[in-house]
Each structure stands twice: as C-alpha cells, then as structure tokens.
Task: inverse folding
C-alpha cells in the first residue's frame, strides 16, 4: 500500500507537466482502491498471479503500444512484463547493495538518500511539484464519527512483528489520550481485527473502525486530529489524507526513504541502538530477543509527542 501511495506525487507531476499524456498503472487487485479515483490516470490494470489472467493483461498492454514504461517496483514480476512489452524502460534503483551494507555491517551510505517519491521521480526523469501524497476518496466517514469530537487515531498493525509497537503500549497510550479528553479511533484491516478488539476492550469508549475498504479508512482518518502508526502503509495513508502523524520506527530506519512525506509528523525511534536496522522490510521476531528498538519507546514519550504537533 505504501509503495503505491508514494507514487502519487510522480503521477500528478507527470500529468500536470504533460496534460496530453495517457498514463496507465498496473497494480495488484487488492490495492485498486488506492488509485481508483485518481484523475491523472487513464487506465488502471489489475495484476493477477493466475497465468491466464497474466497473459491477458500482457496482451492488453502490448496493444496499447506504450512509448515508455516506468518500472517503480523493479522486481521479478515487473521485469517479466517489461521483457514481454519490449519498450523503452526507466527503472527505479532500489539501492539494494547500500541497504545490505547498512543492515548487515552498519555501513551507512544512505545518509543523504532522498525520500522514495523523490527517488521515483529521479528514475522517471521528472521534477516533482511541491505537493505531498494523495488519495481521492468518495466515501463518507463512518456515521459514528462526530464533527465536534477530538479524535486521535491508533493504527497498531504492520505486516512484520518488528515493525509493530507493542500492543500493551497502544493500550496504555489510549488510556492516556482518553484521560486527556481525546476520543480514540482504532484503524486496521480485518486481518488485524483481533488485536483491535483487544485494545478496544481495554479502553473506555474507543471506536473500532476496522475495514477492508481503504477508501473508507481514508475518509475516517480525515476526521482525526492526529494518527499514531507504525512504519507501515497506514503511515503513508495518513499522509495522503493530510493528517499529522506520529510514527514508530523499530527495526527499520528513515534512511531507507519510507518516512512521512511532506506531512506534519514526529518519528519516534531509539537512535544509536547498535542493532538497528536489522532489516529493511521487517522480521517475524527480534534477532537478539530483546526488541529494544520498540520496547524502549515508552507510552509516555508517545503521548508527550502530541505537543510537538501543531494541532487545531
């Protein structure tokens, strides 16, 4: 989800600089909603692993006779499509060797690396505008959300364990927020529903807004004053709806480029921890078993970080 949202400044900049261009986008079906209403795109094609559907997609792409392919994923799947289309290609440099050096040897050659949207634009040879991420939602927010309430969003989910701030800490933070007069809104996919329900059960009157609809989640997020999130897709979704973000970074670091883009934010991380980063995507467990990168970011620190945001 984050990778796709991070392409939105490039899509917008290409179209605004070249209004007559046709821009098509290929993505996995589960992420279709992210670009469903994007006015800068002509066609959105859904990628499927099923061989017959993949062949159908490639035939369609061939028939469009593109002048240029911009491959921002640069993985085996995208390279297979590129090979079949045989057109001029710009490919995103993933800095894999530099990431390897940082993760395994703590040799940091990414200190001056730009954020991912800037690197996407460089790959495409495009100058970005000054805008941030965006998502176009036509959804109305959940009817339980009231205009006169001070909502703070909590997003406890992430695909990998080492990117998740502890559930117990989210509960403690939620209690502090409620005591201070905020109303807690809980966000996540249905895959995270059990964790969300457990947090909800420990709080006084939190709203459970779990949803499989990305557009509905985005509409609900717009009602929040700020959102606490892990280094995950919900961090970028919060930025896309222009809501201030407080983000927890554990096993990953900002040097990889995936931190809040052009949005009011606070990144909470334990700097100078010698084992960070232990991965560039996340792990199922802490290799050293102590999980200090997340456990040392205490709920009190997270709560006090709200003061660093300029909330209305």
Result:
């Amino acid at each position: 989800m984050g990778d796709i949202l991070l392409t939105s400044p490039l899509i917008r900049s290409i179209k605004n600089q070249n209004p007559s261009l046709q821009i098509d986008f290929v993505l996995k079906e589960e992420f279709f909603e992210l670009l469903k209403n994007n006015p800068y795109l002509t066609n959105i094609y859904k990628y499927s692993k099923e061989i017959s559907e993949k062949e159908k997609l490639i035939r369609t792409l061939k028939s469009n006779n593109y002048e240029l392919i911009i491959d921002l994923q640069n993985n085996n799947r995208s390279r297979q499509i590129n090979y079949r289309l045989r057109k001029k290609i710009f490919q995103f440099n993933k800095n894999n060797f530099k990431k390897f050096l940082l993760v395994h040897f703590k040799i940091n050659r990414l200190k001056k690396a730009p954020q991912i949207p800037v690197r996407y634009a460089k790959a495409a040879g495009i100058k970005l505008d000054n805008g941030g991420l965006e998502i176009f939602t036509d959804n109305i927010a959940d009817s339980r959300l009231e205009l006169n309430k001070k909502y703070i969003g909590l997003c406890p989910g992430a695909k990998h364990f080492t990117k998740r701030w502890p559930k117990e800490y989210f509960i403690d933070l939620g209690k502090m927020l409620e005591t201070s007069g905020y109303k807690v809104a809980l966000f996540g996919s249905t895959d995270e529903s059990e964790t969300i329900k457990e947090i909800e059960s420990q709080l006084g009157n939190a709203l459970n807004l779990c949803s499989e609809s990305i557009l509905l989640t985005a509409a609900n997020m717009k009602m929040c004053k700020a959102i606490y999130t892990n280094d995950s897709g919900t961090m970028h979704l919060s930025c896309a709806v222009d809501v201030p973000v407080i983000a927890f970074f554990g096993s990953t670091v900002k040097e990889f480029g995936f931190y809040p883009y052009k949005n009011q934010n606070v990144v909470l991380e334990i700097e100078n921890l010698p084992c960070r980063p232990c991965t560039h995507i996340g792990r199922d467990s802490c290799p050293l078993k102590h999980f200090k990168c997340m456990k040392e970011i205490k709920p009190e620190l997270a709560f006090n970080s709200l003061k660093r945001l300029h909330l209305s």
